[in-house]
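Dear support,

I submitted the protein below through the web form. The confirmation email said the job was done, but the results page showed an empty box. After a refresh the structure appeared. I'm attaching both so you can tell me whether what I see now is the final result or a partial one.
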Amino acid sequence: MPLLKLVFLGTGGAVPKSDRTLPAIYLEDWLGHRIMLDAGEGAQYRLMQIDVSPASLTLVAVTHSHEDHVLGLPGLVLTSRFLGGRLMVLAPRSMHDVLRRLGVEVADGYEGNRLRIRCVEVCHTVDACGWLLEWDVGYKLDLSKVAGLPKWALTSLIRGEPVEVGGRVVTPEEVADPAHKRFRRLLYTGDTAPCPNMWRAVEWVDVLIHEATFADDVDPRQAHEEGHSTVADAVEAAKALKASVLVLTHVSARYPDKERHRAYAQAVKPPPHVYVPEDFDALLVKL
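What the results page shows now:
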């Protein structure tokens, strides 16, 4: 079953609060990938609080160079190294030279074990990547079209590989259930103002984790000039991307709590389903 576990280790913006720390999200998928999205100050300690070793991470993907998103990265890298690991870091290309000095493997994308991750340019005040994670879950076969085929052929077809049986080539597309989606997608924006170019580059996602630095009490133009979004902006992005699930994070310290964000989110009809997590909240998502 395609299942994601998300733990929101830090849901704040540039200025931390005692109960709302700097950006960091832990993601674990059903295939065993363990990924950190951004690494705000103290990220390794928060990771250890959920009993995950930095050395066990598959990679860390940072969205941009602002300090609130990267100050925890050196600690993660060093602790992983001391424990026998070697972290891969995904980052915008403008950050690669600096990150290589930490002695890490740096890349602008990842592909392996049915998961592909790529950078999607977002609209912030510096060079920044939203990270699009795409899982290949294979084809679901129409049983009426594969009757009589051997088990090995079914396995290959589910994986997306054509087979030759009895002198005839069978492709996955001709025997697949047309209602089934082969790919599942999650997009993490990091910091961004409304970004239609991002929407066009991505087209659709299942899960959108979008910044919502401001609620409905700030002039949207001010938010956008600072390279940030409001709750309304995030909802608009989710609808444009046909997301089933929207998670709002990167909430400014100007808000003592997240009730303004939740009040707006609860009024959103029809879906997406909107979540406004607190630090250390966990969310299981069936893709």
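Response: this is the final, complete result; the empty box was a page-load delay. Residues 73-82 form the longest helix (10 residues).
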